[in-house]
Amino acid sequence: MQAVLVELITPSMALFFSACFFLLWWKSGLGRYVLAFAGAYLFSAIGFLIAISLAPDSSITFQASQIAYSIAAVCMIWGVCDRVKQPPFLKVLAIIYLVAAAMLIAEVLLTRDAGPRLIISNTGYGIMLLVGVISLLSSPRRNLADNLVIAILAINAADFLVRPTVTILIEGQIDVAAYHESVYFSLINLVLSIKAVATATVLFGACLSDYLTRLKESALHDDLTGLKSRAAFEDEARAMMKRGQDGARSVAMVIADIDHFKQVNDIWGHQAGDTAIINFGDLLEGTIRGCDVSARIGGEEFCLVVWNCGLDDAAGLAERIRLAFAQMEHRGVGPDIRLTASFGVAEMHKGESYESLFARADAALYQAKEEGRNQVISDLRGERERSDSARRATVIERHVA
Q1: Cβ atoms < 10 Å from Cβ of 13
Q2: What is the pLDDT of residues 144-172, one digit of tens each?
Q3: Contact at 8 Å (CB) between 298 and 234?
Q4: According to CATH, what is the number of the domain 230-400?
Q5: Sheet with strand 341-347: strands edge to edge
């Protein structure tokens, strides 16, 4: 009875980790790779239960456990590769399994020695994991969590490739009928338990790293459009304005607002409204340059800061966006209905703060709304005040001179 309980430690741990990864996937909203980790531990537990439940000299024991362990390996490889958007090379893994399965069938028919069967099966798992390691090594994304995943996968691969051969060389021939009493079988329970804990620890750490990264990114980006959040946008806008002041480069701000947006939600529903917001955000990102910054700063309000761009050029950019948006169709909105947007534009003055520039662009947007919407208004009053201030400074300089 005690021996049976000891044998159940490894599959019980695997099932526990499988349940933990499933709950993590369900509650955290992380990607499907977490579900693949749950599958890997589930099929690992099934493989071990098959090995200890069926008679070792049965013609199907090794093949059945090989199928379960191979599925576990594929789930693991697919999960770690999907996590970093790398190819899992599923066709290669299938070929490795088929070759190993064919060799295992031949070995079962030819001899009663368990050693070659174990070497064939484990070598297949090890080569599969090496394919995963090779795929991960070519990933451009390589933080600490990624490197630990690669390391634990490589350790598992090395164990599968080396341990069976070394153990069997020491123990000698193992008759399949006595497999459960062999040193190898006693050792594998301990080894698999240690590997299960170590691998799960690394994978849970990688999932935690991904979750924290996602939380950080969600604070920097708008969930609906993927544009910058207001706080992140303001930081980047201030930095751009400082670079413009230091390098005597023009910086302009454009604030846009979708016209009559409340009516869109009231008539066609919030899903249609969300579609319009997403379309407008995609239009902004597809129009501006990499050096410019865009954000959704309110419900249907958006903002751009445009680098090395004067007032007239920024107004021209806004006009192109306005015309393009007025021609767009939006899923959920009537097929003959076109939405419009209003724009306010202002150019940065020397020594001006972000708050002042935003206020001028916002005032121009308010004017565009007041004068009928679906138009671009530039902050000409601010430009006139800047011109008047420059002329007064020139007169004072001449008078002093």
Answers
A1: 19
A2: 999 999 999 999 999 999 988 887 777 77
A3: no
A4: 3.30.70.270
A5: 293-296, 301-307, 251-258, 341-347, 376-378
pLDDT score for 236: 93
Biggest alpha carbon–alpha carbon distance for the chain: 111
C-alpha span between 208 and 28 (Å, rounded): 10
What residue ranges of the chain have pLDDT lower than 70?
1-6, 141, 382-401
Q: How far is CA 183 from CA 173, 325, 348, 362, in A?
A: 11, 73, 78, 78
Quick one: which of 65, 141, 63 has its CA closest to 109?
63
- Cα separation of 256 and 262, whole Å? 15
pLDDT of residue 383: 56
Length of the chain: 401
Query: What's this model's pTM, rounded to 2 decimal places?
Result: 0.67
Domain ranges of the chain: 2-218, 230-400
**Bridge-based pairing state of the strands 301-307 and 341-347:** unpaired
DSSP annotation string for 338-383: ---EEEEEEEPPTT--HHHHHHHHHHHHHHHHHTTSSSEEE-HHHH
Buried b (16+ CB within 10 A) or exposed e, 383-395: eeeeeeeeeeeee
Counting residues of the chain whose pLDDT is more than 70, the rounded percentage is: 93
User: If we measure between CA atoms, which residue out of 112, 119, 126 comes closest to residue 59?
Assistant: 112
Candidates 168, 164, 93, 172; CA nearest to 127 is 93
pLDDT at site 173: 77
